[in-house]
Degt/dnrj/eryc1/strs aminotransferase
Amino acid sequence: MIPFSPPTLTEDDINAVVEVLRSGWITSGPVGRRFEEQLAQWAGTSGAVALSSATAALELALRAAGAGPGDEVVVPAYTYTASASVIDHVGARIVMVDSEPGSPFPSVERIAAAVTDRTRAVITVDLAGIPFDSRPLATLLAGRGRIDTGLGAALGRPVIISDSAHSLGASLEGTPAGSLADLTAFSFHAVKNLTTAEGGALTWRADLPTDREELARWVRTYSLHGQTKDALAKSRGASWEYDVIAPAYKCNLPDTLAALGLSQLGRYEQTLQRRRELLAHYAQGLADTGVQLLEHGGDGVASSGHLAIATLPVPGVTERNRVIQDLYAAGVSANVHYKPLPLLTAYRDLGFDIADFPHAYAFYTRELTLPLHLALSDADVDRVCAALAGSLRHISHNSAGSAASAA
Ligand SMILES: Cc1ncc(COP(=O)(O)O)c(C=O)c1O
């Protein structure tokens, strides 16, 4: 079976974790700080705080933006639930935008059109590892939204938060993911390009107009119960005394997991290169099949090559799901990214209706995500392409047959 997205773990990764386990300090501490320093370099910025997930990072980003009850936050409909659920967590109203025709992404104009005088923040998504260019969005949003206090007031527009769960190492004209939006959330979940099993990080633009050291301190404190001293600081000397300044969260990343990330960062350039090679190989292998791969390059775009998102030449969901079954029978595990949020019970219950998001729905109906990971050989990619081509031939033959018998 060709799996969809297993983690790549080396002996060095395992040894790095074992070293922490033997060190006497297993929760957040010096290894996490080294991981954060290197992440900040990858993101082209001055700092990062490692957290337990991208979801935690997104929620803290919204809190840092001051989003709460009475505010609105704009988010694409074509994304994973975590991009939007965090808006609900902070008590703000989710404002969803459709994609552009034939694309999973909304345009900056469409996002800007959804901004009202209650908009505190906008969340953009680097789907598949393709960095979303939020710089023109920043220009369009100048002077708009709810910008009475805090970061929005300093920026003179709603805060732009990037859900960069997929895009560590991506860049636009040399500007890395992490330096494009005001605040950026990365994920290190088990299926991501770089994994700590579960994990994430929050970063901020190097020139964000705020006290960035204070922001880092705030994020760190809020990730640890709002406690003024972390466990490491408390363990030193007779330094037990602490305060709790807010009834906050517990979403720090322990050193045991940070060690895994730090070890993988050491070879991350090669990881990116191989993922991009595999995508190029898919593009070649699928050239004559009518399958369209989502474009990962061009125009100064360097994607992180996280997901091989394809649009199939089939009428809709039934045939797309048939392809997934055929691939499975041929030993290939495929997936769908994503069911647009209004199709999910939670968002339907919040009043969203998929009929209002026709482009996101249309993209979903023919979407298929192919395996993409470092255990994949070029021959495996050829096998996936052949199985996909075979399934498509079978489906078009059957539908031609049923059209003929209906005539
Ligand atoms: C687009 C997107 N955003 C956010 C997340 C949440 O990441 P995490 O599991 O680290 O919270 C994911 C996870 O798959 C994702 O795909």
